[in-house]
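Sequence, please.
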C-alpha cells in the first residue's frame, strides 16, 4: 500500500512508515507542499496512494462520494512529532487492515 503524507504532518512520519515496510512519500519530498488540495487528490488518485492528513477537506470529499483515493484522517491537535508518532504508530496495523477491507475513510481519534 502506498501513502501520501500531507503538508501539516512531519516528514519523519513518512520515514517511520517506510521503516515498517510501507511505501510512503511526503509532499515535501515531491516539492508539492504548496499544492492545492485538488492537486494532491489527483496525484494520490493517479499513483494509487492513500492520503494521510489532518485536513478535514479530504475526509469531506470521501464522505460526499467524490471519486478518488482513500484517506486516513488524523484527528489530533497540535503535538510534538514524538507525541504524534507515539499516538499513531501503535494503531497503524489496524488502519492498514481497515483500508485493505475497502474503507475509504479511516478516522483516527
Amino acid at each position: 500500500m502506498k501513502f501520501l503524507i500531507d503538508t501539516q504532518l512531519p516528514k519523519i512520519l513518512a520515514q517511520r512508515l517506510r521503516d515498517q515496510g510501507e511505501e510512503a512519500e511526503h509532499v515535501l519530498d515531491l516539492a508539492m507542499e504548496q499544492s492545492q488540495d485538488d492537486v494532491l487528490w489527483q496525484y494520490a488518485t493517479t499513483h494509487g496512494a492513500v492520503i494521510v492528513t489532518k485536513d478535514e477537506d479530504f475526509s469531506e470529499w470521501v464522505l460526499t462520494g467524490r471519486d478518488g483515493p482513500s484517506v486516513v484522517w488524523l484527528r489530533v491537535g497540535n503535538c510534538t512529532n514524538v507525541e504524534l508518532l507515539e499516538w499513531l504508530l501503535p494503531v497503524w496495523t489496524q488502519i492498514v487492515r481497515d483500508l485493505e477491507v475497502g474503507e475509504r475513510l479511516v478516522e483516527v481519534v
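Helices lie at 11-19, 37-47, 56-63, 81-88, 92-100.
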